[in-house]
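Quick log. Single chain, no ligands specified.
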Amino acid sequence: MGRCGECRAWGSVAEAAPAATGGAGPRTVATAVSTPAVPIGQVSGEAAAFRSSGVPELDRVLGGGLVPGAALLLAGEPGVGKSTLLLEVAAQTARRRHRTLYVTGEESASQVRLRADRTGGVQDELYLAAETDLGAVLGQVEAVRPTLLVVDSVQTIGAADTDGVPGGVTQVKEVAAALIRVAKTRGITVVLVGHVTKDGSIAGPRVLEHLVDVVLHFEGDRGSRFRMVRAVKNRFGPVDEVGCFDLAADGITAVTDPTGLFVEHHAQRVPGTCVAVAMEGRRPLLAEVQALVTPSPAERPRRTTSGLDSSRVHMVLAVLQQHCGIRTNASDVFASTIGGARLLEPATDLALAVALASSHLGSAPPLGAVVLGEIGLAGEVRRVRDLSLRLAEAARQGFATAIVPASRGVGESGAPRQVDGMKVVEVGIVGEALRMLGIAGDRGRAHS
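-> predicted structure:
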C-alpha cells in the first residue's frame, strides 16, 4: 500500500513479521541465560558490603552505610538542605579516595563550588558536572568512572529520545531507570535528589519509589537549624531509624545527642512546662512541652498548637475537664514544643496533660521530673512501648523522677522503684499523676 487507509499518509505502512502464536495466543520462547542460577549459600556478599558515607548519622539511617550498586532517593522541601547534605557526603567519600561524581542540574558548577568552599568540601577525587541531558550524564559516568554518583535533581534531567518535558512522568521514569541500570551494572552507588509536592509527598510517578532501593525523607522546620533524615524504604536496613543534623552557614554536621535541643533547663519551677520522652525510630529523645492557659475575652476561645497533634490536645483538655475538674472552656489554650520538635505519638499525652493543668492551676511540677504515658478517654494512663529505653535516656540526662503508667494494668498503681538512680512512680489515672506532681485539681484528688 502506498497510502494508509486510516491516517491518509503516504509511505507510512511498514511490513512486519507476524508474531509467533501457539494454540492460545502469543508465547515467549526461552532464551540463553546471562548468569546461571546457583544456591544462595554460594553467592558472595562481598560485592554488596556497606561502605561508610563519612556522615555517621546517615550511616545510622542506612543501616551501615552506602551499598555498591544501590539507588537512593532523597526527598525534601526546597531549602531544607538536601544539596548541602549530599555535597558533604560526596566530599567525605572523595576524602576516602573514592572517586565521586556530583551532577547538578539546578545550579551551575561555579555555584556548587562556592558552597563547597564554604563547607570545606573541595576534594581532589570529587568531580563536578552541570548537565541536564541524560546522554551527557551517562557520558560523564563513562569518563569519570565514579564509585558514587549524585544527581541533583532527577526532575531536571531529560532524555532526548523520550516524549515529554523534564520532570514529567515519562521523563522521570526513563531517567531513573537508566541511572539505576548504570548503578547495577557498574556497581556504582547512585543518589537521586527528588522534589516534593505541597502535601509533602515525593513528586513524580509512584513507580520511582519502587525502582530505587532506599527512600529517604529530609525534614526540618524553616525556623530551626535542626534537621532529620528518616528512612521510608530501605532494602538494606531498618526503616525505623532517624538521623539528626544541625544545618548552619558553614555546612551541615551530625548531631549524635540531640536531646539538649528540645529541653529548656529552668533554674526554678515554671508552671505550664513538662518534659516527655518521645521515640524517633529507635532513638529516645527528651522534649519539653509548654502550655499557656489564660482567660479568653472572646466568645469562642482559641486553641493553638505547634509541634503537637491538635486533635490529641483537644482530647486531653476534655479528659482533664471530665475526670479532673479542670475546666478550660472559657480560656485560650496555647500548647507547643521547644526547638521545633514534633511530638505526635500518644506516649506524650500525660506530659501534655501535666503542662495544661499546671498552667491552668498556676502550680509548677517539680524540677527534674519526666512524665510518660498515653491517656484514654476514661482518664486511665495506658502503657507505652520501649519504656525501658525511655527511662534509661531520662536517667542518663540526670532526671530524678519519672511518672510512668502502671505495669500491672490500666487503672492500677505500683510501689515506687529505682531505675539507674532515678525514682520511678507508677500511676493508673490522670488525677493520680497530677497529685504525685503536686498540681491536682479537686476532682483529681477525689479520683486518687
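The domain at 48-256 is CATH 3.40.50.300 (Rossmann fold).
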